[in-house]
Amino acid sequence: MSSYDEPCDLIRDAGRLGVAILACAIEPTLRRITHNRQMDHLRWGIMATGSIARQFAGGLKESKTGELVAVGSRAVESAKNFTKEFGGKPYGSYDDLLGDPKVDAVYIATPHHMHYEWTIRASGAGKGILCEKPFTLNALEAQRALNEVRKNKVFFMEAFMYRCHPQTRKVLDLVRQGEIGRVQMVNSEFGFHAGAGWSNFRTDATVGGGALMDVGVYPLSFSRMIAGEEPNRLNYSAQLVGNGYDASGSGSLGFPGGMTAHFGTAVHLSMQNDTRIYGEAGMILLDSAWKVSRGSKIRILRKDKEPEILDMGSTNDELYGYEADAVAEFFEARECPYMAWDDTLGNMKCLDALKSSAGIVFAAETPA
User: Fold this and answer.
1) What SS3 state is found at 175?
2) Average pLDDT for residues 11-20, to the nearest whole number?
3) What is the pLDDT of residue 195?
4) Sheet holding 275-279, edge to edge
5) What is the pLDDT of residues 31-72, one digit of tens each?
6) Chain segment 192-206, per-residue pLDDT in tens
7) CA–CA distance, 120 with 122 (Å, rounded to integer)
8) Looking at residue 230, what DSSP letter applies?
């Protein structure tokens, strides 16, 4: 019996099929990737200067390993203003940033449709890569970009920051240990209310805008993580507006092991942004699975037991600091088990299926 099989068999012997699926899917990835030496100091360059770039820069200040040494923008004044607040050397182009020998890793915080090109360029420059979600506009682009990452032997992770937070690992431990029995259903949502006149790439369907690609990716990735396998039934019903972007939508997933998942997402609609995991013996409720904040709680409700409440909240800087430190921890292994390459590809394939079911097409994406 291989070491990969042992924990799975032990869990199956306990009669916990749903938990076994999760453990079998995740444990081999953890073992495969964890043999590495952690980087104690990682020098970062940030590509783009928007809101998410600013949040990651704040996280670098909170991290134990990261230092911001360079910022690239298509407008040098924007880069200069950014570095005045967060530090680093400003560059007026992304290529110039990639040419800086002091940069070990880059955080790609550009609009969605630019991730594909700049992941390939960054890997060619020998830089480690943390790329904002969604990784690319479709699975074909993701596979091609990862082929370049693999060829150039650099680190890559898609930037699902919640995957690196201790709260997420605690939830996974609870599910693995069978605290709520076999998981039957996951319900989650992530949405925000941008004004009707909001002018942003997120409202442009030609370049990958819309709720599903911007924030719907979070509950999708979470549901897949809890299921421990890929869904074989997917559907997304969306409200298409403007030039065809999804202002809001509801998705459903069905998994071979029997678990189902439902999610809501929006860019023009305020939502509760909570998550519920329902098992045969109880449920786990998360106040905030994605943007974990101070006071965020995990509530564990089980049959014939007192409710258990865990406070694993953090500041926003700490949230992104955990992500930066995860990159440093697995930098030499080139892949982080919290969001492995196969996980990214699986998520992109699901996004392709969900987009297709809703009739969403991006003019900027590479045709399959």
Assistant:
1) helix
2) 35
3) 80
4) 233-241, 245-254, 260-266, 183-191, 275-279, 282-286, 297-302, 308-311
5) 556 545 678 999 999 999 999 999 999 999 999 999 999 999
6) 999 877 888 999 999
7) 6
8) -
Angle at CA of residue 6, ends 16 and 334, nearest 5°: 105
Residue 29: the pLDDT is 58
Does residue 357 surpass a pLDDT of 80? Answer: yes
Which runs of consecutive H residues, i.e. helices, occur in 191-265?
211, 217-227
Choice between 7 and 326, residue whose per-residue pLDDT is larger? 326
CA 335 to chain centre: 14
Residue 156 neighbours by CB under 8 Å, 6+ apart: 119, 123, 128, 129, 130, 131, 146, 149, 334, 335, 341
Helices (H), 34-75: 51-62
Q: Nearest CA to 277 among 181, 178, 187?
A: 187
Residue percentage of the chain with pLDDT more than 90 = 87
Residue 335, exposed/middle/buried by CB under 10 A (0-12, 13-18, 19+)?
Answer: buried
Cα–Cα separations (whole angstroms), residue 261 to 187, 264, 334: 6, 10, 31
* One-letter amino acid for residue 241 of the chain: V
CA distances from 82 to 10, 37, 170, 289, 315 (A): 52, 32, 35, 29, 21
The SS3 of residue 232 is coil
CA distance 261 to 137: 23
The single-letter code of the amino acid at 204 is D
Q: Which fold has domain 42-162?
A: Rossmann fold (3.40.50)
Query: Does domain 169-313+341-358 fall into CATH 3.40.50.300?
Result: no
- Annotated domain spans of the chain: 42-162, 169-313+341-358
Mean pLDDT of the chain: 91
Task: Identify which has the larger pLDDT, 336 or 197.
Answer: 336
| 178 Ramachandran zone, left/alpha/beta (phi>0; psi -120 to 50) | left
Structure tokens at 346: 């699986």
Same fold: 42-162 with 169-313+341-358: no
Q: Provide the Cα torsion 121, 126, 132, 138; round to 10°.
A: 50
For the whole model, what pTM was predicted? 0.91
Quick one: which H or E segment has residue 191?
Answer: strand 183-191
Please check the confidence at residue 182 and state whether its pLDDT lies above 60.
Answer: yes
